[in-house]
């Protein structure tokens, strides 16, 4: 078998095989954390929390800034590990590492200014609020942005004075360990950021642990529902960053070159394994042929191969079963009447050492209709579906006709239309004349079944802290008794 448990029923013996997608070979095996290890991690985080919560915002800020500096210094090394683990091109992995240290810097900047308000009450009495940390927070990550996800969760958590136990996906267990090493080197108390390895069972132990105050999850909708259910038993708040099937709307008055570039960004980063990808590309009929021709031309030019090479822009998918899953969607699309305009095949790169890797050619599907499976379901691979439309009202109706609501995009030169359209789109993140950029200053997260809560931006402070109200009496107690 490709990946999985050797002894699924005897949890203590659960062993994972770590495949390297570039070569399709096992490079390591590891044991999962069981209930006992999860408890040890939570207890050590709890001890560290007692020290960390007492530090001033400025003290926490200094340590986060130092961690950000070390990440910058070790950027190439971390990006290489990320590429080996995930398969994304090293060029792209470096961009992920940039958004990671930027996130630490951003929350370091906010750490010292977290505060409450003072409220004057009658008779000289007053009240005030304090923003306090939650305690031990759990982070559970997906495999597509391992280091970035761990950074986007831990930076605000730590800035607010919490501890975090993080579980990466068992497909990409390594780079988060580098983050833990970096936090330690930067000076966080031992145990403040703990990493446990494992799959669903380990994740469940974490969500159920009585000393865990919050769960922040990034992954699929089905797992998100399970996590919410588990957390509800302990009345723990959750942040859910889930999947999507986002619309990208290209109006005929757009700058076509930019729209084509935007569509490529919206579909082919990280082999298309991106939650917020704009995979339903609605193109206004007048420019459908021109746009499609150019997108196909650019897609055929993407260099696929060893992602560690500087000029590669698309590496292998995460594992064989996912590759087959993605190819299955393309087969089904053909059966349902879509036309493969390019790609969609298994790809064996020329370099013989890559022959067992999980490569495919990026695919553009034409003649797509709203009811097709490729248009309705998250494929999580390099597959763009092109649909045509005529009017603004019609495209809005169709774009919103989905249970997902993570992201959306619009390309137009008409500034009024751009704002009118994004105001109607049911999505947590909307792009105008760009796609898939991620400034850490802006909140990121979904509507509808794509989840709730946010990462990044000032608002995330609220998801990693709680508000205490203090009411101060300056006079005598007026009892009703
Ligand atoms: N919205 C976002 O920010 C965002 C970002 C990246 C990925 N995603 C989504 O993630 C999905 C792909 O990632 P994936 O395949 O790793 O998702 P997944 O749901 O299979 O797994 C995500 C994580 O949850 C853990 N897990 C699985 N079952 C669990 C359970 N019952 N209890 C606790 N933990 C459990 C996994 O081990 C893994 O660490 C896609 O749907 C994608 O859209 C969303
Ligand atoms: C950095 N991106 C491209 C916006 C992706 C964020 C995480 C989604 O999978």
UniProtKB/TrEMBL annotation:
Organism: Sarcophilus harrisii (Tasmanian devil)
Protein biosynthesis among keywords: no
Protein name (database record): 4-trimethylaminobutyraldehyde dehydrogenase
EC number: 1.2.1.19, 1.2.1.3, 1.2.1.46, 1.2.1.47
Entry annotated with the keyword Protein biosynthesis: no
Keyword annotations from UniProtKB, A to Z: Cytoplasm, NAD, Oxidoreductase
UniProt catalytic activity: butanal + NAD(+) + H2O = butanoate + NADH + 2 H(+); 4-(trimethylamino)butanal + NAD(+) + H2O = 4-(trimethylamino)butanoate + NADH + 2 H(+); (5-hydroxyindol-3-yl)acetaldehyde + NAD(+) + H2O = (5-hydroxyindol-3-yl)acetate + NADH + 2 H(+); acrolein + NAD(+) + H2O = acrylate + NADH + 2 H(+)
Active site (UniProt): 241
Any GO molecular function: formaldehyde dehydrogenase (NAD+) activity
GO cellular component: cytosol
Lineage of the species this protein comes from: Eukaryota, Metazoa, Chordata, Craniata, Vertebrata
Subcellular localization, as worded in the UniProt entry: Cytoplasm, Cytosol
Domain Aldehyde dehydrogenase: 21-470
Family annotation (Gene3D superfamilies): Aldehyde Dehydrogenase, Chain A, domain 1, Aldehyde Dehydrogenase, Chain A, domain 2
UniProt record similarity statement: Belongs to the aldehyde dehydrogenase family.
UniProt-listed NCBIfam families: PRK13252.1
């Amino acid at each position: 078998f490709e990946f999985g448990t050797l002894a699924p029923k005897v949890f203590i013996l659960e062993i994972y095989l770590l495949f390297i997608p570039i070569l399709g070979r096992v490079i390591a095996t590891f044991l999962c954390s069981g209930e006992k290890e999860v408890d040890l991690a939570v207890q050590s985080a709890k001890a560290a929390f007692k020290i960390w919560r007492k530090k001033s915002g400025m003290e926490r800020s200094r340590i986060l800034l130092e961690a950000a500096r070390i990440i910058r210094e070790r950027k190439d090394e971390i990006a290489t590990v990320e590429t080996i683990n995930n398969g994304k091109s090293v060029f792209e992995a470096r961009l992920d590492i940039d958004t990671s240290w930027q996130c630490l810097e951003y929350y370091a900047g906010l750490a010292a200014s977290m505060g409450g308000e003072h409220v004057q009450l009658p008779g000289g009495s007053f009240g005030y609020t304090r923003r306090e940390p939650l305690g031990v927070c759990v982070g559970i990550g997906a495999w597509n942005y391992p280091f970035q996800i761990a950074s986007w969760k831990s930076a605000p958590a730590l800035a607010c004075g919490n501890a975090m136990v993080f579980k990466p996906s068992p497909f990409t267990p390594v780079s988060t360990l580098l983050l833990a090493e970096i936090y330690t080197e930067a000076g966080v108390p031992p145990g403040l950021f703990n990493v446990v390895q494992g799959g669903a069972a380990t994740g469940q132990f974490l969500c159920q642990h009585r000393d865990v105050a919050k769960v922040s999850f990034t992954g699929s909708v089905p797992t998100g529902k399970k996590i919410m259910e588990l957390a509800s038993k302990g009345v723990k708040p959750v942040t859910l960053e889930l999947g999507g099937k986002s619309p990208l709307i290209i109006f005929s008055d757009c700058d076509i070159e930019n729209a084509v570039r935007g569509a490529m960004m919206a579909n082919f980063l990280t082999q298309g394994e991106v939650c917020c990808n704009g995979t339903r590309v609605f193109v206004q009929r007048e420019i459908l042929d021109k746009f499609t021709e150019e997108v196909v031309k650019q897609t055929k030019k993407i260099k696929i191969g060893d992602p560690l090479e500087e000029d590669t822009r698309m590496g292998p998918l995460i594992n064989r079963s996912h590759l087959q899953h993605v190819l299955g969607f393309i087969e089904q699309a053909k059966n349902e009447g879509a036309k493969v305009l390019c790609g969609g095949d298994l790809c064996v790169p020329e370099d013989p050492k890559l022959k067992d890797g999980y490569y495919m050619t990026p695919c553009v599907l034409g003649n797509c209709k709203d009811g097709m499976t490729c248009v309705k379901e998250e494929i999580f691979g390099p597959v763009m579906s092109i649909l045509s439309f005529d009017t603004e009202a019609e495209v809005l109706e169709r774009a919103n006709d989905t249970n997902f609501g993570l992201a959306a995009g619009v390309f137009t030169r008409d500034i009024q239309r751009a704002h009118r359209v994004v105001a109607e789109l049911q999505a947590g993140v909307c792009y105008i004349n760009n796609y898939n950029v991620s400034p850490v200053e802006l909140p990121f997260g979904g509507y509808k079944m794509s989840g709730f809560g946010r990462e990044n931006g000032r608002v995330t402070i609220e998801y990693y802290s709680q508000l205490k109200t203090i009411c101060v009496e300056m006079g005598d107690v007026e009892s009703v008794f």
